[in-house]
């Protein structure tokens, strides 16, 4: 189901911009072959690939992985939300899809013990707020790892390479609010 949503959204965004696969590949730094496979649901993209696509299209991540529907009021119950596992180390689910009025989206992440997830720089002006729910999490910001424990928060500029690391023996759960500098829509 997730691959169907991603394929439909990718094709919609590409066509709305009148981009060929070659143009989309140049803009996203994802190969033309891979983009075609994603659109035909022949390949499941990693989270790193989805971020490249989102960045190339100047879109928030959540608009690629959820049906394009803007909701002003929403209740998300854990039993009805789908956990997404695109990489074995990091699982996530969308808590709040991108809101064009607030210019943000919110995710819940689960990072397995002894695992690191490195993230490429997002678009200029993107800010992330991290809230650790359980466990201990190290965050790579400005080439330095900072240790956060349950209840700790950190805000940082995500327009630089950054990362998340679980050095503990238990899974770490954290929430991530991503703020975008300008309004982005699903069109």
Describe the protein's architecture and organization:
The chain is α+β, with helices and mostly antiparallel strands and 187 residues long. It has 2 domains: 2-65, Orthogonal Bundle (434 Repressor (Amino-terminal Domain)); 90-179, Jelly Rolls (Sandwich), CATH 2.60.120.10. Helices cover 25% and strands 33% of the residues. The protein has helices at 2-16, 21-28, 32-39, 47-57, 62-65; strands at 90-99, 104-111, 115-119, 127-134, 136-141, 144-149, 153-157, 162-166, 172-179. The strands form 2 sheets. Strands 1-2-9-4-7 form a 5-stranded antiparallel beta sheet, with no helix packed on it. The model has no long low-confidence stretch (mean pLDDT 87).
Keywords:
alpha+beta, 5-stranded antiparallel sheet, 434 Repressor (Amino-terminal Domain), 9 strands, 2 domains, 187 residues, Jelly Rolls, globular, 4-stranded antiparallel sheet
Write a brief caption for the model:
It contains five helices and nine strands, in the order αααααβββββββββ. With 187 residues, the chain is an alpha+beta fold. The protein has two domains: 64 residues, 434 Repressor (Amino-terminal Domain) (Orthogonal Bundle), CATH 1.10.260; 90 residues, Jelly Rolls, CATH 2.60.120.
Element layout with pairings:
Elements: H1 2-16, H2 21-28, H3 32-39, H4 47-57, H5 62-65, E1 90-99, E2 104-111, E3 115-119, E4 127-134, E5 136-141, E6 144-149, E7 153-157, E8 162-166, E9 172-179
Antiparallel strand pairs: 1-2, 2-9, 3-8, 4-7, 4-9, 5-6, 5-8
Helix pairs in contact: 2-3, 2-4
């Amino acid at each position: 189901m997730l691959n169907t949503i991603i394929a439909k959204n990718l094709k919609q965004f590409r066509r709305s911009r009148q981009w060929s696969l070659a143009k989309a590949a140049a803009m996203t730094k994802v190969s033309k072959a891979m983009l075609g496979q994603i659109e035909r649901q022949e390949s499941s993209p990693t989270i790193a690939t989805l971020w490249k696509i989102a960045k190339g299209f100047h879109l928030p991540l959540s608009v690629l992985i959820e049906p394009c529907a803007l909701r002003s009021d929403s209740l998300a119950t854990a039993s009805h939300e789908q956990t997404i596992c695109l990489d074995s180390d990091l699982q996530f689910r969308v808590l709040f899809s991108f809101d064009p009025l607030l210019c943000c989206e919110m995710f819940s992440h689960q990072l397995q013990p002894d695992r690191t997830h490195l993230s490429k720089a997002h678009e200029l002006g993107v800010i992330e707020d991290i809230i650790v729910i359980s466990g201990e999490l190290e965050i790579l910001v400005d080439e330095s790892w900072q240790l956060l424990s349950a209840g700790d928060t950190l805000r940082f500029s995500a327009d630089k390479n950054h990362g998340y690391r679980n050095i503990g023996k238990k899974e770490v759960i954290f929430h991530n609010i991503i703020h975008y500098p300008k309004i982005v829509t699903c069109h």
